[in-house]
Amino acid sequence: MGLYQAGLDALRELLVGSNPVAAAEERTIALRGADPTERLIHFLADVLYLYDTQRFLAARVSPAGVEGEGFDPARHTAVREVKAVTHHGARVERDERGYRATIVFDV
Amino acid sequence: MNGGKVRIERIDAYRWRVPRHGGMRTDGLIFADAALMRDLEGDQALQQVANVAHLPGIVGPAIAMPDIHWGYGFPIGGVAAFDEDEGVVSPGGVGYDINCGVRLLATPLAIGDVRPRLRELVDGLYRTIPSGVGASRSDLRLERRDLERVLRDGARWVVARGYGSESDLDAIEANGTLPGADPDCVSDRAKSRGRDQLGTVGSGNHFIEVGYVAERYDTTVADRLGLEPGTVTVSIHSGSRGLGYQVCDDYLDTMLAAADKYGIALPDKQLCCAPIGSPEGARYWGAMNAAANYAFANRQLMAHYARQALRRVFGDDAADRTRLVYDVCHNIAKHETHEVAGRRRRLCVHRKGATRAFPPGHAELSPTFRDLGQPVLIPGDMGRYSYVLVGTEGAYRETFGSSCHGAGRRLSRHKAKQLARSRNIPKELEDQGIVVRAATRATVDEELPEAYKDVARVVEVVHAAGIGRKVAQLKPVGVVKG
């Protein structure tokens, strides 16, 4: 599993728990940031913004951004509010097995 | 004492010093008793006090209140003042939820009148004021022009629309409008996060609470504030919602670049900041004050809906005679004048999880409160009690006119949830006579009373140290959680 997918899964679990989310529509996210850690923080902040303003739940990373679907109260449970993707202790490291990342969400 | 890597020296029964060392420009000063300090052993919050003391232009010590706990960059329960010319402004010193705060309403009802219809009242509050994740108001989606007015005028805009009265404004810190707001400094992204959230309480530790006056410590002040024995109160704890979170997030990026640009060495990235007079500092100032005004407007609107809920259950007279006791900010930075080493100085005071607590006679207090001192509202957990205090000369001398803001968490949300797993927290509270309504069980579990320190201990330290004076204790009987 890719680094961005793992981050997206962690954020989605905070937002709606383990409710299945379909990859029905795509939203564009442009990567920005000076280093891998900043880029991951901004990517996740954009995913959070889509949820907060459009109730769009991202299921998976796509070449242009993310694929997902709108929040459906019949199938999804809003578990908690995530205020922000913070810089606290954030890091992305590469080792022989792949990437290891630490991201702290403010809830 | 060992505070993790931080050396702590005891000054007296309620004060502890983090002696200046390394890159610190000043000492840290922590208000706590021995038991609260023991709870803090090994906590990163103590290191965060030392980190704040590294920032340029800091005046006096980096201060922590007895409800100190770990926050992003600055600790929660932190106060830091900076020289206007040489100092910095930092989004991390204000927090994500800009102008998170509390307002207290006093009804004309006595607890004996309310108990028989308590469930109706709490249900009414729950229905009338959207709470929980992504709460929004379908009846009040702001047009762009309206939102700009909210950001500029705060609670004054809400009152002008008929939701409240001039006397409400008199009982809000800064009369509910901070003058430095500049909506142009708030990003479109932040505005879109805030457009349909005005008048909503949100989730996490935010709440609406019905309580009553259970104890009075200063009957003269309590009488003046309308807090008679048994008076039923409504407290509202919320802030600037998604708009404020986004302002903080936007400016953390700006300030990271600014700290680099101005050569400010940061012991922690989340302390990122810019000189107060720099373009970056000025833009954050405009945005922060705009978000703070949004929060004032948010609490004003919720107070209106709380009155509507009271009206439906107890009639027009009860609603019309429900007065705003006071509304305080817990997360804010302000330009203020303080006396430091015998000299009056203009300072930028950051309070993150701390309450302004100006003493009697302070010119910034409205005439209604000038002889009393500023009311200080200290919520506890949802099972025990909250407090009303007033500001003191001691606070003005020692803490830049600041006091504590709450109980302070002692368990992480994860640990609290584990503790609550095999229990029914709403039922436990109901058995104590407290009716709880919540959007999700998760919030109630994460906010169970044991997740917090005993706020009475926090308040005792504040009172004994002279940085606030106890007026009354409120006990909860109904809670709406997000």
Structural write-up:
The complex is a heterodimer of chains A (107) and B (482). Chain A is α+β, with helices and mostly antiparallel strands. Chain A has one domain (3-106): Archease domain (Archease, Possible Chaperone, Chain: A, domain 1, 3-Layer(bab) Sandwich). In chain A, 31% of the residues lie in helices and 28% in strands. Chain A has helices at residues 3-16, 36-54, and strands spanning 25-28, 56-61, 65-70, 84-85, 91-95, 98-102, 105-106. A 3-stranded antiparallel β-sheet of chain A has the order 1-3-2. In chain A, strands 4-7 form a two-stranded antiparallel ribbon. Chain A is globular. The relative contact order of chain A is 0.25. The model of chain A has no long low-confidence stretch (mean pLDDT 92). Chain B is of the alpha+beta class. Chain B folds into 2 domains: 2-95 and 335-356, no CATH class; 101-334 and 362-481, tRNA-splicing ligase RtcB (Alpha-Beta Complex). Chain B has 18 helices and 21 strands. In chain B, strands 9, 10, 11, 13, 17, 18, 20 and 21 form an 8-stranded mixed β-sheet that branches. In chain B, strand 14 (331-340) and strand 15 form a beta hairpin. The radius of gyration of chain B is 21 Å and the shape is globular. The model of chain B has no long low-confidence stretch (mean pLDDT 94). The interface between A and B is medium-sized, with 22 and 29 residues.
What would a concise description of this structure say?
By secondary structure, chain A is an alpha+beta fold. Chain A has helices at about 5-15, 35-55; strands at about 25-30, 55-60, 65-70, 85, 90-95, 100, 105. A three-stranded antiparallel β-sheet of chain A has the order 1-3-2. In chain A, strands 4-7 form a two-stranded antiparallel sheet. Chain A has a two-stranded antiparallel sheet with strand order 5-6.
Features:
heterodimer, A: 107 residues, alpha+beta, Archease, Possible Chaperone, Chain: A, domain 1, 31% helix, B: 482 residues, tRNA-splicing ligase RtcB, 2 domains, eight-stranded mixed beta sheet, 18 helices, globular
